[in-house]
Amino acid sequence: MKAKDMMIEGKLLSFLTSDGVRLNGFLFSGGSKRACIINVHGMTGNFYGIRQMLLAQMLGKRGVSFFSINTRGHDAVSNYRIEDGRKSTRVRAGTNFERFEDCVFDIKAAIGVAERMGFRKIMLCGHSTGCQKIAYYQYKSKDRRVSSLILLGPADDYSIAKRDLGRNFGRVAALSRKMVSRGRGDELDRRIPSGFSAQRFDSTVNQRRIESRIFNYDGKLREFASIRIPILAIFGSKEEFAAKSVGTYLKILGRRTRSANYRPQIIRGADHSFKGHELELAQRIAEWAKQV
């Protein structure tokens, strides 16, 4: 489906996290206070990406509101301000510099916004690394306000890095760990790929860190397994960021989950971004929202 000159009515919202970070999001209303999906973008993403716009439009027509938010890791490089009374401190952020664990503050604040607006059913939807973020949030918080998780392309960053770096993986991983241990985690090094700071790369490849292991399909997925609320997991059959077949990924999640309502799905012909398959994706999400 192609999007051109789109205009979607909604509300641009600014909200503050408990640690003082000002973030933005956009609420696309579905005309009902019953259900709201909070959408968390992936690496280098943001709240206004074309996939989010298309999903919002399609879900709104089906009566489901869609609150697309920025985390402090939006875009490749960005910044945010920590507000503390009269003071405001600028901090370098974006995907390349964010600290994954801080996503808990961002998601909790967004849930608070949705709750104050009167929504009674709140679902968390993550795309790509957004899957790691919402799974980590629910594992960490066990937030009873969250009725279900929607995982869109929950890929395995650790295994992807091992595959892509080949024999250089161990050397680059050791370099990032060394820089972090020496207090140089926020620095860049040309040997570290993707423009990541040392600590950001370490977060994805160090199995002692939660981001690296939460969807490491060769691991035990203990954190994921602790989540008991309903889970919808969707991959595209042409997922390009996959170290195994997507069918294998979904079967592994099915074996590990303790959720009584786990639903694996594959959209034929779709890639990691579900480009061109947004309508089918929206239909499946809308059906899930009505059933859980």
CA-based shape? globular
Rg, nearest Å: 18 Å
Structural class: alpha/beta
- Provide the β-strand percentage band: 15-25%
Q: Can you walk through the features of this model?
A:
- By secondary structure, the protein is of the alpha/beta class.
- It has two domains: 11-156 and 217-291, Alpha/Beta hydrolase fold, catalytic domain (Rossmann fold), CATH 3.40.50.1820; 157-214, no CATH class.
- Helix content is 35%, strand content 22%.
- It has ten helices and ten strands.
- The protein has helices spanning 50-61, 103-116, 129-141, 157-165, 169-181, 198-205, 210-213, 222-225, 246-256, 278-291, and strands at 11-16, 22-28, 35-40, 65-69, 78-84, 87-93, 121-127, 146-152, 231-236, 262-267.
- The strands form two sheets. The chain has an eight-stranded mixed β-sheet with strand order 1-2-4-3-7-8-9-10, sandwiched between helices. It has a two-stranded antiparallel sheet with strand order 5-6.
- β9, α9 (246-256) and β10 (262-267) form a beta-alpha-beta unit.
- 46% of the residues are buried.
- The mean pLDDT is 94.
